[in-house]
Amino acid sequence: MSMGNVLLETRKLSNWFGKICTARELDLAFEEGVLTSIIGPNGAGKSTLVNLLTGNLPVQAGSVLFRGKDITRFPIHKRVRMGVCRSFQILNIFPQLSVLRNVMIPVLARSGRSMRPFAGISGEKAVLRESEELLEKVGLSRVRDSVAGALSHGDQRLLEVGVALAAAPVLLFLDEPTAGMNPVERVRLLESIRELSRGGRSTFVLIEHDMDIVFSLSDRVIVLHRGEVIGDGPPDEIRENARVREVYLGDEMTDVFRITGEE
Amino acid sequence: MPDDRVTGRLLRAIAVLAFVAALASVPLFAGKFVIYLAMRVMILGIFALGYNLLLGGTGLLSFGHGAFYAAGAYGLGFFSLHLSPNPLLGVAAGIAAAMLLALLIGFFSVRSTEIYFAMLTLAFGMMVFSLIWNARDITGGDDGLIGIMRESIPLFGGVKISISQDSRYYFLVLFFFLLSFWAVHRIRNSPFGLVLAGIRENAKRTEFAGLAVRNYRLAAFVISGAFAGLAGSLETLLESNARPFMAHWTHSAEPVLVSLLGGIQTLTGPVVGSILFVAMREIVQRFTENWMLWFGIVLLVIIMGFRGGVVGVVRQLADRARGPRGG
Fold first, then answer.
1. Which stretches of chain A sit within 8 Å of chain B by CB?
2. What is the Rg, in whole angstroms, of the alpha carbon atoms belonging to chain B?
3. Number of A:B CB contacts under 8 A?
4. In contact, A220 and A233? CB cutoff 8 Å
5. How far off is chain A from B198, nearest CA to CA, in Å?
6. How does the average pLDDT of chain A come out, rounded?
7. Which residues of A touch B223 (CB under 8 A)?
8. By CA distance, what is A168's nearest residue in B?
9. Does the beta-carbon distance from A108 to B195 stay under 8 Å?
10. Do A105 and B194 touch (CB under 8 A)?
11. pLDDT tens for residues A45-59?
C-alpha cells in the first residue's frame, strides 16, 4: 500500500439529529488508491458520514476539504463535477429509463453537452460509446435496452454502481453496494470493484455490513461507533483492536469476527 | 427487429404527413366555424405541448401557466397597439414577455417541488391575474385589451401577406403549431430532454450525476412558458383582444387536463387531448350548461382506468394486436 495524495479530508466534522450525535469532531483523510471500508453497528453514523461528505446532508459544524479546497458548502452537483460521487443503499436509479440511458445521464453531464435542446440524442456518438463501455465493465451490456425498473434486484444493484461510476469519480463512496444480492452476484460485484480499484482511476470507499467482504477487500478499515472513530487501520490491526471487539461484543457480528479471525 | 423499426418509422412518417395534409386542407373544405375550432384546437395544442415538457417531461405540476399565456397575449397586445402592428414581431414580443415572466416566477418556484411547487405557481398565477384585473389604466381591467388588429405580414421587397381573413390566418396558426410540435419532439429526444427525464425519474440521482437540477428545472419552466406565450399571442390575434381570464387559474388548469386526457408520457397526447377537449366542449355545450361536469366524468374515467391517457391506451391496444413479438 503506497501512500497516495490525500483526496478528501474532514476537520472536526460534526452532526446531530436532535440530541443524538451521529458525527463527533471527525478528523479523517481519504488517500488516493487506498480501498477503505467504513464499518460499525447500526446507527454508528456510517451513512451520515457519507451524506455529509457528498453534500447530501448540510454540514452543521466542521469542514470538508477536497484536494485541499474547502467544499463544505458546495452543492452536490459541484462535488460530483470535482470527482466525489456515491451510490446509495436504497436503490436510486432512473426506473423508467433504459439501462443505457441510466448511465448516459452522468456521461452526458461530463461531456458538457447536456444543455443542448435540439441535438438528437442518437447523434451523441462519443457519449454512447463511453456509456456502452461502462455497461461492459459492470456486466450489464446484455440488458442495455431493458427498462431499468424491470431488471432483477442484483442487476439493479449493479446499475446503481454503474450510474455512480459513469460520473467518472476520483473518489467513490459505495453505500452497501451488495445489499440484498445473492452470494454469486455479490462475489461478482466485489471482483469488479477490486479490479476497478486496481485500475487506479477511482478510489473506493465502501460501507459494508459483511465482514468477510470488508476484511478480504480493504486496505484500510474505519470503525465508527456513535459518531466516533473507534478503530482505523489495516484489516489485521482492526481485527485485534480491543475497543472494536468490545463494541461488537454481544452483537451478532462477534461470530463473524471470530470466524474471519481464525482464517 | 430492424425491419420492424423501419416499418414503424415509415408508418409514423405517413401518419404525420396525413395529419399535416388533413390540417392544411381544413380551410379548403370546412366552414368558418370548423376553421375557427381547428385554430382553437391548435392554439390549445401549442399551450399543452409546451406545458407537457414540464409535466410529463420533467415531472413538475404547474398551476400557473395561464400567467404566461396572458403575458404572451398582453405582450403582443401592447406591442401591436403601441409599437408596431407587425404580427410576427408581435408574436415574438409575446413570447419574450412570457419567457421573462416565466424566468421571474420560475426562479422562485423551482426551489420547491411537488405540492409546494404547484402551490407557488398557483399563487404567482393569481397575483398576475389580479394585477391585470386591477391595473385598469394599462390593461383595460376586466374589459381586456381590445382593438388589436390582424395586420398583413410584410415580407421582403414590399410583398405583404394578408391574414385578416380567418381562412388565411389559419395557416399562420398551422405554421406555429407544426413548428411547436417539431420543437417539442426535438427537445424530448435531445440530451437536454434526457436530463429532464432523469429529473422526473429521480432528481437526487440527477444531482449525483453532476447536474444542477434547479437550473434544468428553470430552463424547462421558461421553455414551457415560451410555448404558453406563443399560444396566448396567437389567441389574441385570433380574437383581436387579450382578456384577464387568460391568466386565471381555471385557464391554467386547461393544459393540465388536456395533457392528462391525452397522455402525459407521449408526444401526441397533449394534441389528442386538445382535440377531444375542444370537441367535447362544443358538443356537450349544446345540450347542457354544465359541460365541465361531463368533462369531469370523462377525466375521472381516464385517470382511474387509463393512466396513460387516450394515446397510451391506443398504443397498448396496438401493441396487443401486434401480438407478443416483443421489441
1. 54, 56, 75-77, 80-81, 85-86, 92-97, 101, 104-106, 108-110, 113-122, 124, 127, 163-164, 166-167
2. 20
3. 103
4. yes
5. 6
6. 88
7. 117
8. B209
9. yes
10. yes
11. 899 999 999 999 999
- The pLDDT of B191-196, averaged and rounded, is 96
Question: Under a CB-based contact definition with an 8 Å cutoff, are residues B76 and B236 in contact?
Answer: yes
Residue ranges with strand state E in A114-209: 171-175, 203-207
Output the pLDDT for position B326: 44
| pLDDT tens digits for range B232-271 | 999 999 999 999 999 999 999 999 999 999 999 999 999 9
Q: State yes or no: pLDDT of B324 exceeds 70.
A: no
Residue with cell 408596431: B84
C-beta atoms surrounding B130 within 10 Å? 13
8 A C-beta contact, residue B294 and residue B252: no
Q: Which of A84, A98, A118 to mutate to test the interface with B (most CBs of B within 10 A)?
A: A118
Domain regions of chain B by residue span = 30-247
- Which residue has cell 439493479? A156
| B→A interface, C-beta within 8 Å | 183, 186-187, 189-195, 197-198, 201-202, 204-213, 219, 223
Stronger pLDDT, B299 or A87, i.e. the higher one: A87
Q: Is A75 exposed, middle or buried (0-12, 13-18, 19+ CB in 10 A)?
A: middle
In chain A, whose CA is at the least distance from the CA of B326? Answer: A146
Confidence of residue B311 (pLDDT cuts 50, 70, 90): confident
| Sign of the dihedral defined by the CA atoms of residues A74, A79, A80, A84, in that order | negative
Per the CB < 8 Å rule, is A95 touching B201? Answer: yes
Nearest to B192 among A86, A106, A116 (CB): A116
- CB pair distance less than 8 Å for A80 and B208: yes
The SS3 assignment for A204 reads strand
Whether residue A122 is predicted with pLDDT greater than 90 in this model: the reply is no
pLDDT digits (tens, 9 = 90+) for A67-100: 999 999 999 999 999 999 999 988 899 999 999 9
- Interhelix angle A183-199/A125-138, rounded to 10 degrees, is 120
SS3 B194: helix
Listed residue (B78, B196, B268) closest to A101, CA to CA: B196
Q: Do A117 and B212 touch (CB under 8 A)?
A: no
- Of A213 and B81, the structure prediction assigns the larger pLDDT to B81
Chain Cα centroid distance, residue B42: 8
The ipTM value here is: 0.89
Cα dist. B198→A97, A166, B59, B295 in Å?
8, 14, 10, 33
Q: How confident is the model at residue B323 (pLDDT cuts 50, 70, 90)?
A: low
